[in-house]
C-alpha cells in the first residue's frame, strides 16, 4: 500500500480510493510523455523540404546518348566495331560504299576534264583580252570602226562567263567527291557503342539513317527531379538539395540533414516555368562544388534513379505537422532569400 498524503484527510472519498501501483506508474509515464511531446513539438527545429524523384541526365546534348548516322547514301561494306565496344574520338565505326562502285573513278575523270576546261577558258580569255587591247589602239588611230572594239569586249565577257561556269562545275564535283569520301563514319567523341542497327553487305542506307548509338564517356551530370506544384513556387536557384542515388546505401532524415548518412549534396540549377504532362515541375540539380563529389559515372550512370529533398526554411516540428495535415505550402521566409541576394551581389 502506498502511503497517502496527509492533505487528503480533507477529501474522504479520494482518501478511500487506493489505485494500484501500475496505474500510478502509467499516469506518471503519460504525464512525462505528454510533456516531452509538447517540448518536442514547440522547441525542436525541423528543416522543411520539397521532395522529388527523378533520374540522372546530361545537361549538355553532346554528352547524351547520340545516334551515329550515314552522311551519304550507300551500302554497308564493313563494321569496325561491335556492340558494347569502347571507342575513342575519331575511331572508324563503319565503312560505306556507293551503290555504283565506279562512281569515284568517274568523278575523278570528270574532275580532270573540268580542270582542262578551266585551262582552256583561261587561255581563251587571255587571247580575247589581248584582242581588246589591239582593237582599242586601232580605234584610236582610226584604222577600224568602234563596232569592232565593242565586239572584242563582248567576246571577253563571254570568255569570262565560260571560265566562271567551268570553275562552278569543278566546285560541284569537289563537293560530290568530298561527300563520297565521308563514307567512312567515325566516332564523334569518346564513348561506348550501345547498339548497331544495320547489317553488313546487303543493307542499303540513305543519308541520315541511324547506323548505331553511342554513349559518351564521363559526361557532366545533373539530377532531374519532379516536384509537386505546391512546393515548386518557393524553390529558387541555389537552394541546397540532398540526394539519394539508386543503388547507393543511404539513411535520410529530411528534417535533420546532419543526421543523414550516405547522402550527396547538390544545389538547384534551374526550375522549369511550366509543368510536365504529369502535372509535376522539373527541377534540375547540379553538384555542389563545396561538398564531396557525386559517385563516378560507372556507379551512377545516366538514367539512374534519384530521390532528392530541396532544403528550405527551418521551423518547429509542431508547425510542420500542422502544415502537413492541412496541405499548406512550406514556410516562405526571408533567410534563404536574403542569402541568395548576398550570393548574387558577391558574384556581380
From TrEMBL:
Residues 118-183 form a coiled coil. It comes from Methylobacterium gossipiicola. The chain crosses the membrane at residues 21-47. Keywords: Coiled coil, Membrane, Transmembrane, Transmembrane helix. It comes from the Bacteria. SUPFAM superfamilies: HlyD-like secretion proteins (SSF111369). InterPro entries: MFP (IPR050739). This is Barrel-sandwich domain of CusB or HlyD membrane-fusion.
Amino acid at each position: 500500500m502506498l502511503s497517502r498524503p496527509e492533505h487528503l484527510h480533507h477529501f474522504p472519498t479520494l482518501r478511500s480510493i487506493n489505485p494500484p501501483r501500475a496505474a500510478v506508474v502509467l499516469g506518471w509515464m503519460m504525464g512525462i510523455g505528454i510533456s516531452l511531446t509538447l517540448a518536442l513539438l514547440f522547441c525542436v527545429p525541423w528543416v522543411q523540404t520539397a521532395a522529388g524523384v527523378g533520374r540522372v541526365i546530361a545537361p549538355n546534348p553532346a554528352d547524351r546518348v547520340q545516334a551515329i548516322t550515314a552522311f551519304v547514301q550507300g551500302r554497308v561494306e564493313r563494321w569496325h566495331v561491335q556492340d558494347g565496344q569502347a571507342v575513342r574520338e575519331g575511331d572508324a565505326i563503319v565503312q560505306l560504299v556507293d551503290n555504283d562502285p565506279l562512281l569515284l573513278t568517274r568523278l575523278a575523270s570528270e574532275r580532270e576534264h573540268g580542270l582542262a576546261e578551266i585551262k582552256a577558258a583561261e587561255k581563251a580569255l587571255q587571247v580575247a583580252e589581248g584582242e581588246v587591247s589591239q582593237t582599242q589602239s586601232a580605234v584610236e588611230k582610226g584604222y577600224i570602226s568602234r563596232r569592232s572594239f565593242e565586239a572584242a569586249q563582248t567576246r571577253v565577257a563571254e570568255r569570262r562567263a565560260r571560265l566562271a561556269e567551268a570553275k562552278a562545275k569543278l566546285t560541284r564535283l569537289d563537293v560530290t567527291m568530298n561527300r563520297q569520301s565521308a563514307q567512312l563514319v567515325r566516332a564523334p567523341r569518346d564513348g561506348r557503342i550501345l547498339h548497331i542497327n544495320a547489317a553488313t553487305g546487303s543493307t542499303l542506307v540513305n543519308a541520315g539513317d541511324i547506323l548505331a548509338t553511342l554513349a559518351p564517356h564521363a559526361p557532366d551530370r545533373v539530377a532531374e527531379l519532379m516536384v509537386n506544384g505546391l512546393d515548386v513556387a518557393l524553390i529558387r536557384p541555389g537552394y541546397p538539395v540532398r540526394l539519394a542515388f539508386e543503388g547507393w546505401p543511404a539513411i535520410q532524415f529530411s528534417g535533420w540533414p546532419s543526421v543523414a548518412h550516405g547522402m550527396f549534396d547538390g544545389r538547384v540549377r534551374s526550375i522549369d516555368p511550366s509543368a510536365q504532362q504529369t502535372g509535376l515541375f522539373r527541377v534540375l540539380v547540379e553538384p555542389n562544388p563545396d561538398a564531396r563529389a557525386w559517385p563516378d559515372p560507372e556507379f551512377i550512370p545516366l538514367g539512374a534513379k534519384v530521390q532528392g529533398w530541396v532544403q528550405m526554411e527551418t521551423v518547429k516540428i509542431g508547425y510542420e505537422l500542422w502544415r502537413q495535415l492541412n496541405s499548406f505550402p512550406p514556410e516562405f521566409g526571408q533567410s534563404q532569400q536574403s542569402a541568395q541576394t548576398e550570393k548574387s551581389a558577391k558574384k556581380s
